[in-house]
Each structure stands twice: as structure tokens, then as C-alpha cells.
Amino acid sequence: MRTYLDAKAMAVAMRERLTDSGVSISHSQALEIVARQFGLDTWNILAAKIAQIPAGRDDGGIGLEAAAPIIRIFDEAKAREFYLEFLGCSVDWQHRFDPDAPLYMQVSRGAMVLHLSEHSGDATPGANAVVFARDIEKLHGELSEKNYRYNRPGLQKQDWGLEMQVIDPFGNRLRFIERNDTPES
User: Fold this and answer.
1) Residue 110 φ/ψ region, left for φ over 0, alpha for ψ in the -120 to 50 degree band, beta for the rest
2) Cα-atom radius of gyration of the chain, to the nearest Å?
3) Is 177 buried (19+), middle (13-18) or exposed (0-12) by CB count in 10 A?
4) What is the per-residue pLDDT for 55?
5) Distance CA 157, CA 93 (A)
6) Which residues pair with 116 in a beta bridge?
7) Strands (DSSP E) found in the chain
8) For the residues 136-143, what does the mean pLDDT come to?
9) Domain 70-179 coded CATH 3.10.180.10
10) Cα gap 40→37, rounded to integer Å
11) What is the pLDDT of residue 156?
12) If you average pLDDT over residues 22-49, what whole number do you get?
């Protein structure tokens, strides 16, 4: 079964079949038609999606997205102070089964998405999540300026790149990593 990664081959095959039937279209027209078959407005949008997938990371057209780790929290006020005020996240949505029920909410900043939960069965305190980023030094400067009394993140050069760790009030660790430009062996 073909996926959107086969879009160019699909356009070529369609164009050849149409030509055999006496219908002539340009290669660019064929690419636009294939893009629409995948539910996208233009070939440029489809091409950009294809370019975002690193080599060897095809999901077979399933459409897997980045994971959203569930992070266990115990105190809503402390969680909001850390994730919203210190890290600069925004609340995307929140849910309670009733006013006295535990909180479950999604926070995000850029492409980083985290689920925070007061539910005892959702996660274990002490989680460790990796967040890849492009400019750790800028993020480090931003967080350092906030002078958050419970966390003063440092920068470390590691074999895999520059890393900054922050630990939330519940013992959960976020490792922000700016990968090296050199490929791994």
C-alpha cells in the first residue's frame, strides 16, 4: 500500500495511465491532484510534510505524532507556578469529573505538549522526559532571569549535545536537549 511518501511515484503512475487513455496533464498538475487525494490543498504542503520526516522514520502512513507524557502532580497551585509561570507554558485544556475531582490538564509551549494529572493511577512521580530544542542557551537565559526560587537550571555539554535539566516540585525531570550537528555513529 502506498503512503504519502510515495506521492511522486503516484503522480508519475497517474500521469502515465492518463496519457495511455488520451488525457494529458503536466507533472505539476499530477502532483497537485495527489496532494488533494491526501486531503491537502497543495503539493507544497504535502512536500513540506514529507520533508519533516527524518530518513528511516516512516510510520507507514499511519500519522504517528509526538508523544505527550503524563506527569504526576500533587498540588495545582505549585504545578501552575512551575509549568505556566516558570516554564512559560499555556493551558490548552483542563478537565475534572466534578468540582472536587482531581485535575487533568494539557499544557504546551511550542511543540512541547505535556499532560499534568492529579489522578493517582495516571503516572508515577519521578518521571524523566526529554524535550529536544534548538536554542537551549536562550531558554536557559530566559529561565535564569525568572529567578525561580525552587529551580536554578544549569547547562551541561554532553556527548549528544547541550543539555539543561529542570525538576518540577513533584520530582519530575524535564531534560531539554539541543542535539549535536554531527550524526551519531
Assistant:
1) left
2) 23
3) middle
4) 62
5) 35
6) 71, 105
7) 70-72, 90-95, 104-109, 112-117, 128-132, 155-158, 161-167, 173-179
8) 94
9) yes
10) 7
11) 92
12) 85
Give buried/exposed letters for 70-87 (b at 16+ CB in 10 A, else e). Answer: bbbbeeeeebbbbbeebb
Whole-model pTM?
Answer: 0.67
**164 in helix, strand or coil?**
strand
Other residues' Cβ atoms within 10 Å of the Cβ of residue 48 = 11
Going from N- to C-terminal start, the domains of the chain cover: 4-51, 70-179
Nine-digit cell at 110?
511550542
Q: How far apart are CA 70 and CA 14, in angstroms?
A: 45
Q: Using alpha carbons, select from 93, 94, 86 the residue that is nearest to residue 153.
A: 86
DSSP string, 6-22: GHHHHHHHHHHHHHHTT
- Answer yes or no: is pLDDT of 184 > 70: no
- For 69, the grid coordinates are 507524557
